[in-house]
Amino acid sequence: RLKRTLPVRGPQAPTLSELMRWYCLNTNTHGCRRIVVSRGRLRRLLWIVLTLSAVGLIIWQCAELLMNYYSASVSVTVQFQKLPFPAVTICNINPYKYSAMKEYLYELDKETKKALETFYGFSEGKSKVRRSVDDWNSTGSDFFEQIPLLKVEDFSRTATELHSGQKRKIEGSVFHKDSSIVNSGDSNDIIGFQLCDANNSSECALYTFSSGVNAIQEWYKLHYMNIMAQIPLEIKEKLSYSAEDLLLTCFFDGLSCDKRHFTRFHHPLHGNCYTFNSGESGTILSTSTGGSEYGLQVVLYIDEADYNPFLVTSTGAKIMVHDQNEYPFIEDIGTEIETAAATSIGMHFTQSRKLSKPYSDCTETGADIPVENLYNKSYSLQICLHSCFQKAMVESCGCAQYAQPLPAGAEYCNYKKNPNWMYCYYRLHEKFVKEQLGCQQICKDACSFKEWALTTSIAQWPSVVSEDWMLRVLSWDKGQKLNKKLNKTDLANLMVFYKDLNERFISENPANTLVILLSNFGGQLGLWMSCSVVCVIEIVEVFFIDSLSIVLRRQWQRAKKWWSGRQQGRAAQAMASDVERQGHENPACIDEDLPTFTTALRLPLPQDSPLPRTPPPNYSTLRLETAFTEQLPDTLELGQH
Fold first, then answer.
1. Omega within 30 of 0 (cis) for the link into 7
2. 154, 492, 133, 479: which is closest to 304 by C-alpha?
3. Could you list the residue ranges that cross the membrane (predicted)?
4. Which residues does 398 contact at the CB level (< 8 Å), separation at least 6?
């Protein structure tokens, strides 16, 4: 009885209001206590506003701390040490000797010259090169007629064909202008070509260009790749430049070097390229001194006279400085050097490393990227993009694009086996540029990479006073392979060196650790609420555990009350049904007093039963019976009297 009359407080309080009042009176956070003990509505309202403001500031500051937890700080470290020399890849801008390629390009050059003569009135003397007996161009002429150069008049659908010179209406549902440059000149005629789907002639795309030079070069490269895709690799390596052809002199770190220090690899667009210090032999050269005298110095023989006049329009070489494990994408980021000049390239070496997930969206090795690496080199974003496009090319067009490595089981596109590949390639490339192919979304940056910042300077070489004797000596060094004296426009001087031996290492480090995060949390709680970790545990216990237990306990009591009421209702219904069957068990008759005649008449009667009658009285109960078998002696006299 005493336990029931005493008030229950603390975690066992019956209501949330009593629990909150007990918490505010006993907590170590001062604001909550002041709300309860303050007198006056104004003072209590002020403490409520201040306490809620402090809670809001704590939540905001802690959210900022959590959001900035995965941020990174960048640190730059500079070291002075002996540096490994990078790989230097050198390619001639002209991929193949034109004198050796003429027999394969006979039909293509013929059509190109005819286009120049038809559209621009340019004529040349007849070529003395006979057509090769090999059947490399057996289907070329027919395909030139299917994809001819066109002169489109005033951006209309009327075009003049190269072969027949007749005008025809350009058919097709697609009139492509998105990837072309609108003609800005005064002429109303533009040059281009039309590609159509071989399976559906109504699906066409017209590619136009602002300049006839661009149109002819693009059209020429399109057919050129088709021809080169049909030539075996062994033959193409012989048609390109050898190390003896390209390299005249070589020095590294003040010592002489030769072709043994260069590794050849065949590039689809640049022919034979040569990499200095490739590391394939297991040894990587290094340098201990900065300056042009301690780097790589080479003199290159360009042979401008043997250039393809329609494929390339500039003279010189392309070089790329890269890591030994990196593939040289010389067509994308190569540096061009010109002839008759000395090109000095100074380098600064920087090594960078980014933090992977969850700090940034980069990949360590590329193993988590669902794209096969076709280049057999360490992962890079360019390798992923090119491999992804090549995979999409094989899946969509049934063949591989010539400028990229072959996937397993695929072959390069050509007219004979894949007559529809040009239209498919251009459509696919358009989607790739517009980022509709999905490659840009799949591929990620590498977390670690090496970079050489290049500074280029050019000087005239050789000088006027030294030109005569230098060209004579170089011609003599070239030996009997040349029957002519070298010209300075056939030569290029290249120097690649470290400007200094400062190695910069840029790395990302976590800006926050778990210890710092907890310390910041504690500072915010102590600043705004004079609260500690114990207070936080107390808040969790009261506001979550105890409050939840009170709510659940009240719900449980309600459920028990509802269930007991339901059970009593069922029992009452059962008793009522039993009374209907047996009248004498009716609750109306169950009383402390005996039933009367009137109550008996009120009982319900069973169906198909005779009316009950009042039973006759038991008269035997009215008889007087003695409890003794014999009469007592003292009563005899009374009986006699």
1. no
2. 492
3. 45-70
4. 418, 421
- Global confidence as pTM: 0.69
Q: Give helix then strand counts, H and E, for the chain.
A: 20, 21
pLDDT tens by residue, 208-267: 777 778 888 888 888 888 888 889 999 999 999 999 989 999 999 888 988 889 999 899
Question: Where do the structural domains in the chain lie, given as residue ranges?
Answer: 16-71+514-550, 74-96+241-360+447-511, 105-121+142-229, 363-444
| Separation of alpha carbons 441 and 385, rounded Å | 10
3-state class of 92 per DSSP? Answer: strand
User: Within a 13 Å sphere around the CA of 456, how many CA atoms are in the beta-carbon half?
Assistant: 14
Cα dihedral angle (541, 545, 547, 551), rounded to 10 degrees? -170
Sort strands 158-161 and 149-153 into parallel, antiparallel or unpaired: antiparallel
Fold of 74-96+241-360+447-511: Acid-sensing ion channels like fold (2.60.470)
Alpha carbon 87 to its chain centroid, in Å, reads 30
Is residue 189 within 8 A of residue 152, CB to CB? The reply is: yes
Instruction: Round to whole Å and give the CA distance between 634 and 323.
Output: 147
Provide the token pair at 309. 């006049």
Fold match, 74-96+241-360+447-511 / 363-444: no
Q: What element of type H or E holds 91?
A: strand 87-92
Give the tokens for residue 547.
């409050």
* Two structure tokens written together for 13: 């309080």
CA distance 48 to 182: 69
- Residue 358 pLDDT class (50, 70, 90 cuts): confident
Instruction: Evaluate whether 105 touches 307 at the Cβ level (below 8 Å).
Output: no
> Rounded to an integer, what distance in angstroms lies between the CA atom of residue 194 and that of residue 421?
13
Taking the C-alpha atoms of residue 622 and residue 635, their distance in angstroms, rounded to an integer, is 24
CB-based contact 387:419 (threshold 8 Å): no
DSSP category for residue 544: I
CATH number corresponding to 363-444 = 1.10.287.820
Report DSSP letters for 391-408, one per residue: HHHHHHHSSB-TTSPPPT
Contact between 179 and 433 under an 8 Å Cβ cutoff? The reply is yes
What are the beta bridge partners of residue 336? 318
